[in-house]
Every structure is written in structure tokens, then in C-alpha cells.
Amino acid sequence: MRSELLQMLIDRQGEFVSGEAISQYLGCSRTAVWKHIEELRKAGYKLEAAPRKGYRIVHQPNLLTENEIKAGLKTNYMGKNVIYETSVTSTQEIAHRLAREGVPEGTLVVAEEQLGGKGRLGRAWHSPIGTGIWMSLILKPKIPPQQAPQLTLLAAVAVIRGITETTELQCEIKWPNDILLNGKKVVGILTEMQADPDQIHSVIIGIGINVNQTSFPKEIQEIATSLKLEKGQEINRAHLMRSIMAEFEKLYELFLSDGFYPIKQMWEAHAVTIGRRIIARTINGAIEGFAKGITEDGILLLEDSHGRTHKIYSADIDF
Ligand code: BTN
Fold first, then answer.
1. Band of pLDDT at residue 240, cut at 50, 70 and 90
2. What pLDDT does 298 receive?
């Protein structure tokens, strides 16, 4: 109800809305309206109250709270159940626990800050407070476990579309899951699974987006960037999150009804890895060759100088 109130005030763009109109719209008492207003104030919203005029919104904090995300969210289930935390070790950890406890599909865990953010291949993921989107989305697809990597590719397409819709920036994908802007990494995706050998219980899609950072630690400043740095202006994180949730739900429904093929085509349209010479650094060593494409399972096909095709399941790619 609080997010509906928030949306109503946001829609009026700073105009007053009477307490009577709000209580009728929400179907609650004037006292309940006042309590919701107080809660929004505690969360950092500046709301003006004037006798006989009602309430109006004067300032919205750039937060990623449940209210902010849900105000204007146009999905049926993606991001409808939001678990918002200020500071956590990793949203993946929380999502794993919630998935085991049986939360609904589409549950979104989001934090302002991660103190132990996890990247791929056991790396750390830098997640400073209030600047990025650090989120984990819980899915429960009825697909065999070996198809789960396809959801990583689906996530990359959903995030790219959400970014373009919100910022007009055009990102590229580096296989399997790095999203780049002007050659630098702006998004990382980490897919984890709870499964038996023949059945998936949950897939946890962890997405880290560098949104409003203006600087990075020395170790990554050459390879990382943010949407703000590339666009030259602050980005509203909640708006971006809503766009991503909407794109995600559309693509996920398409995937469940028509399979991976349409997603694969969209993914390939954004991929910089395919059709060029690359070096794939795997745990068994580096292989140099021509990236021919990806399989139906999202595996990279690399042809070496002897004409032999290697299936690459996991690697870092250099050009
Ligand atoms: C990568 O190495 O590129 C993947 C990075 C994934 C980071 C995200 S941030 C939200 C979620 N929680 C984590 O601890 N990691 C993922």
C-alpha cells in the first residue's frame, strides 16, 4: 500500500494530493494515510503537508527500497517480492537461504552495500554503498540442470535492454556474462543453482551493475566503468531496476514457452566475442582461436589453428 501511495504522489509531480483522495484511493483511513506518510519520511522522502491541500512530494532519495522499486513496476511476478537490506555480506547468500525456505519465483534480494560481494571464479565483487545495483533474483524453472547456463545469457540480454531503455547507452556482451561499455566492464552476472542431478530447485541470478560510481579501486580502474561515467549523468537506480525486471519477465516467459533459440539470437546480436580471434583462459590453460558461436547450451565454440573445435564451458576471454 505504501508503494501505491508513493506512486500516486510521484505521478502528481510535486502537486498536492488531498488526504481524502488518498484515503479513498487506497481504501484506508486518514490516520493510516498519515502513518504511511510518516514511514516514507523516515525512509528519506521529503513530503510537505499543508492544511486543506494535502500532501506533496518534494524530494525522493535515490534508494533501492521495496517502495522505490515497486512504485510503477509493471510485472506479474519478477521483483514483486523484494527483500531490501542496507548492508549484507552478499545478496547471493541471502537468496540461497530464501530459496531453500520456499519463497515465490521472482523474489528479488537487493542491498545498498555488500561487504563480501562474490564474483565468478571465486573473485570478489566491489560493491560500495548506495551507488550500484547489487541484486539476486530467484527463479524456479522446470528445465534440466545443464540448461541453467542459458539463464545467464538471458539475464545479460535483459540487463542490456533495461540499460538501453533507461539510459540509451548501448552495451556489448563478452561471453559468457560480462557486459561492457566502451570496452570496460559495467555489469557482472553470477549464476548459481540449487539442484539434484536431474532437477533444478532454484537458480539464483546474481547481478552487479556499476551505476553511479565515479571512481574505482586501483586494481580495477583500468577495466571497470559505470553508467554514470559513460552517460555523464546520475542514473535513477530504481527506474533501471524496474526496466530490468520487466525485460527479464518478458524474456523468461519467452524462454519457457519457445526455448532458448530466440534468446540465443538476441544474445548473439549484442556479443563482441563471436566471429573474431580470441584467447580463452580456462583452468586447464589458454586456447587461442576463432570464436565460431555458442551452442544451444550457451557453450562457446572455439576453433584452433589446427581446425579443431573446442567447447569452452568456463573461461576468461581476451582479445
Ligand atoms: C562477475 O564476476 O562478473 C560476476 C559478479 C556478480 C556480482 C553480483 S552483485 C549481486 C550478487 N551478489 C554477489 O555477491 N555477487 C552478485
1. very high
2. 84
Q: Tell me if 289 CB under 6 Å of ligand 1.
A: no
For ligand 1, atom 3, which residue shows the shortest CA distance?
188
* 62/44 Cα distance (integer angstroms): 9
Nearest of 131, 134, 85, 82 to residue 106 by alpha carbon: 82
Closest CA to ligand 1's atom 2: 119
To which residue does cell 541470478 refer? 205
pTM reported for the whole predicted model: 0.86
Q: Answer yes or no: is pLDDT of 43 > 80.
A: no
Q: How many angstroms separate the CA atoms of 44 and 266, rounded?
A: 39
Indicate whether residue 132 lines ligand 1 (CB < 6 A): no
CB burial of 210-247 (b: ≥16 within 10 Å; e: otherwise) equals bbbbeebeeeeeeebbbbbbbbeeebbbbbbbbbbbbb
Q: What does R_g of the chain's alpha carbons equal in angstroms?
A: 21
CA distances from 70 to 7, 81, 238 (A): 9, 9, 9
Q: How confident is the model at residue 86 (pLDDT cuts 50, 70, 90)?
A: confident
The per-residue pLDDT for 244 is 98
- Find all residues with CB under 8 Å of 233, minimum gap 6, and list them: none
Ligand 1 pocket mutation pick from 93, 207, 211, 316 by most atoms within 8 angstroms of CB? 207
Q: Which atom of ligand 1 is nearest to the CA of 120?
A: 2
| Protein residue with its CA nearest to atom 16 in ligand 1 | 206
Q: Which residues contact 311 (CB under 8 A, 6 or more apart)?
A: 295, 299, 300, 301, 302
Relative to beta strand 199-209, strand 277-282 is: unpaired
Ligand 1 midpoint to CA 298 (Å): 19
Distance 203 CA to ligand 1 centre (A): 14
Distance 12 CA to ligand 1 centre (A): 37
